[in-house]
Amino acid sequence: MRRKRQRARAIVSPATLSNSFDRRSFVIAGVQGGLGVLLAARMGYLSIFENAKYKTEAESNRVNLSLIPPRRGWILDRNGVPLASNRADFRVDVIPDRMRDAEAEIGELATLLSLDKVKVDEILDKVEKSRGFAPVEVASGLDYDQFAAVSVRLPDLPGVVPQRGFSRFYPTGPSVGHLVGYVGAPSREEYEREPKPLLLTPGFKVGKDGIEKQFEQELRGMPGARRVEVTATGRRVRDLETREDVPGHPVHLTIDGPLQDYAARRIGLESGSVVVIDCLTGDLLCMSSMPSFDPNSFSDGIGRLEYSMLSKNDRVPLRNKVLQGLYPPGSTVKPMVAMAFLEAGLSPDATVTCNGGLRVGNRVFHCWNRRGHGSVNMAKGIYQSCDVYFYHFAQQLGMNVISDMARRCGLGQEFPLPVASQFYGTVPDPEWKLKKYGREWQAFDTVNATIGQGYMLFNPLQLAVYAARIATGRTVMPRLILDGKPSRFGSMNFHGDHVQIIQNAMSDVINGPGTAGRARLPIDDVLMAGKTGTAQVVSLGISNGKTGPWKYRDHGLFICFAPFDNPRYACAVVIEHGGGSGSAYPIARDVMTFLFDPAKALDSLHSFEKQWGGKPAQRMARQYAAFVGEMGIAVPEETFNLDPRESRAAAEARAQPKSDATNNGTAKGQTGEEVSSSANPDNAT
Amino acid sequence: MSGIIPAPISRQPWQMLIPLIALVCFGGAVLYSAGGGHVQPYALSHLVRFSVFLVVASVMTLVSKDVVQLLAYPAYIVVLLLLVAVEAVGAIGGGSQRWINLGPLVLQPSELMKPVIVLVLARFYASLPSGMVPTWRSIVPAGAMIGMPMLLVLAQPDLGTALAIGFGGVVVMFLAGLPLRWFIGGGIAGIIAAPVAFFVGLKPYQQKRVFTFLDPESDPLGDGYHITQSKIAIGSGGLSGKGFNNGSQSHLNYLPEPHTDFVFATMAEEWGFIGGMFVLLMFFLILRWGWKVALSSQDRFSRLLAGGMVATIFFYVAINLMMVMGLAPVVGIPLPFMSHGGSSMMTNMICIGTLMAINRWTVKAGRSGLST
């Protein structure tokens, strides 16, 4: 201990301490200098080597790029009149992720924009189900005062986005619903398929159905962009630059807008569809399907209630009946069958005596006229729609000549049209039946087919094309897009004067001693030719087809063309459960009248609409109000389902019982007005 | 001392004052920008404060060494009592607090403790007989003098200031010639104790800061936000910066505290690498002058005092710059002479004033020929 202290004393002195201070201060200064160099190096690394990276990050901090949804291209009719256009409006969206208290904020918005309870509940419902980062529309079509009221309160309403924009506008509303479709905010699936930031931009809509969906890319256009300098809290400092959007391209349809609207309105309270085709060009002038939905309200983001109302309606306003409605064609196939007979060598003068029925195998198939038509030749078979005539000769000539002719006429055909889905139905023949059901073709199958019952199912578009082909003797192909290209159709190659024979018979249906004298056009020098059809839905044991429950009534069908001497327009009308062809041909008559004398046609429509309670949009509004009153807001949740595949499955399911019915021998040849057998109690909806 | 320039001016330590004034003016310019292109509220008060404290520092140079030595212990005791008082006021007031309101003056005793701890330890080691330096007598009283204020400041809680006090004290002990093995042993003990202290001694928010520093990208919008935005500001400046008043990070509020702790980032964004090098150079010149003062002074008290003061200033500079460049966790330590804030300006000007006083003592002693 003593030794140690002595040694310590010997070493430590003021001189050694001073020495040690010099050395140690040098060490500290050295460490400090080293740190200084390190800091300089770090500074250089950050600001020179990593400059580009941090510059980008600073820019992305500073600049907020917001996309301006492009103005959607217009959908125009053949005369350049818009079927779908854009309307400038003010709108308010919310971005759920950025909201602090969704319920309170939407409550505040509801007061500012005077939204009712139903609407608020619907918005909250959508906010809850949304993807969070995607905008949910609160209101659109606002006036400037409402827009300003929201804008000034923005600091208290995080996540609320008011903006000037455009909303889709369909001037004729429900009349073009099925044809044009509608637009809506992109769904999660649509975003995943096309993960572009534009799809998340508030106010951007994509086509959801019909033309809007088929021509999405043409209609969409290029988004504009607004570069805005923002603070860390998101406050806008100034606009840096704005790139204007490039509006989408217009799509020209062959549709005649006023005609489309007229036909839709003329269907009235019925459920059905009207197709008009230009015989010379194949232009589809009208593809109306009613009842329909109002694409304007779909495009605003359809409410749960309204959707529920539409999906519950037994007249399926969500289905485009022109393309997705399959019906037994009834007697409208008779001109085609007769043509098949002619082409197979049957003389038009060959007669058969109709006593009101014909025994086929061990069953009697009745003519619609139980009293019989007496001696019937081909023309009379058509204009009187005698079933026995067709039963008789069909058994002689066989099913294959009929099914071949059906296909030549476009029945059962899928046309190259820009539509989401076409149900092309069935042209039955022995081979088809064997393949589908594993059973042999029977004589009564042929008999059923000649009068458009049994397995036959066509859509109204096919019936219109068929009418056009009979009217012209040319292979008319329908088209929906007006591209200015002339149409050139080949001949149907009917022999000799066969076309004239059939056309004359069809003229006699209306202008002669036929079944539809009342379908005569109220225009002096234009004659129309046509063919009626009544398709039975259930057996006569359940309903007589004309009265009773709506869904048991017969379908009414009518095909026609005019002018008779120089066919220009062909038309097909199908009225679901209309109670017979009498429900269809007056509509066809008025629609055709509209083409030649719009004023006259509108007069008759106006008197009808007085009885019906206004235009379709007005009736729908009343219906909706009644529905809301009835259901309250406690409507069970429904999933939106406009997927055509599902309705196709449903249609096939409905078609299924037919075979069983047939094979159970229920095809008893009952007679309707002009129908005989209906094998299937549920073969058409 | 040329004949043209009057002696009172020529004897001022211009080799330090010029860089210092340049730095403060540059700081004023940066604060002008941080204030959105206005002298209020930052730039003007910054310059005013500097002017006031420069006068204070000049007055300090008039105080003789004997008086300073005499006042060392009383000053320490007063500041220590103030720290206790802050604790007491905080305990009664029901919340932690770091300052005392003395009428118009807001006093932060922990700031005062930084120079005072250096002063008192220099006084202690200057009077300690050389022979006692390697014994317990040199470390136990000094340890107590450092430990008491550190604990009081930690209790506030203010980790940054506590570390600054500890750092100043330890540097003086090191310069005083305490055996090297003690520092090595202390260092090893510190490495072992650090994890324990980290998990036991630090509050969760302080622990989080350390984790965030280790991986700032893990939470870029939360705790890593400060570091990330500071690095973006510095990195986006490039060689010559975005130009005066053009920093988007600071002007659009992406950079937190652009006028205090992150003033260097504000500067670097607008002045770039060149501005950064200028600041580093100015600090280098000031600190080099400080070391020159320390080494040229003749007595042990002056040397220890000067060395400690230089170390205290350096500690501020180093920790702040490391923090803004993402090399150290976020601790609330401002950049001397540039950050807006009275307390840090006062502390650093006291350090500068002390160094100027020591310089004057040395010059006087040299002129009177008492020593070479």
Automatic annotation (TrEMBL), chain A:
Entry's localization field: Cell membrane; Membrane
Gene Ontology CC terms: plasma membrane
Transmembrane in keyword set: yes
Gene3D superfamilies: DD-peptidase/beta-lactamase superfamily, Penicillin-binding protein 2a (Domain 2)
Keyword set, alphabetical order: Carboxypeptidase, Cell inner membrane, Cell membrane, Cell shape, Cell wall biogenesis/degradation, Hydrolase, Membrane, Peptidoglycan synthesis, Protease, Transmembrane, Transmembrane helix
Lineage of the organism: Bacteria, Pseudomonadati, Pseudomonadota, Alphaproteobacteria, Sphingomonadales
Organism: Tsuneonella suprasediminis
Biased composition range(s): Polar residues: 659-685
Pfam families in UniProt: PBP_dimer, Transpeptidase
Protein's name according to its UniProt entry: Penicillin-binding protein 2
Biological processes per GO annotation: cell wall organization; peptidoglycan biosynthetic process; proteolysis; regulation of cell shape
Disordered as annotated region, ranges: 639-685
TrEMBL record, chain B:
Pfam families documented for this protein: FTSW_RODA_SPOVE
GO cellular component: cell division site; plasma membrane
Keyword Transmembrane listed: yes
Stored InterPro entries: FtsW/RodA, RodA/MrdB
Catalytic activity: [GlcNAc-(1->4)-Mur2Ac(oyl-L-Ala-gamma-D-Glu-L-Lys-D-Ala-D-Ala)](n)-di-trans,octa-cis-undecaprenyl diphosphate + beta-D-GlcNAc-(1->4)-Mur2Ac(oyl-L-Ala-gamma-D-Glu-L-Lys-D-Ala-D-Ala)-di-trans,octa-cis-undecaprenyl diphosphate = [GlcNAc-(1->4)-Mur2Ac(oyl-L-Ala-gamma-D-Glu-L-Lys-D-Ala-D-Ala)](n+1)-di-trans,octa-cis-undecaprenyl diphosphate + di-trans,octa-cis-undecaprenyl diphosphate + H(+)
Compartments, record wording: Cell inner membrane; Membrane
Job of this protein: Peptidoglycan polymerase that is essential for cell wall elongation.
Protein name (record): Peptidoglycan glycosyltransferase MrdB
Organism: Tsuneonella suprasediminis
Gene from which the chain derives: rodA
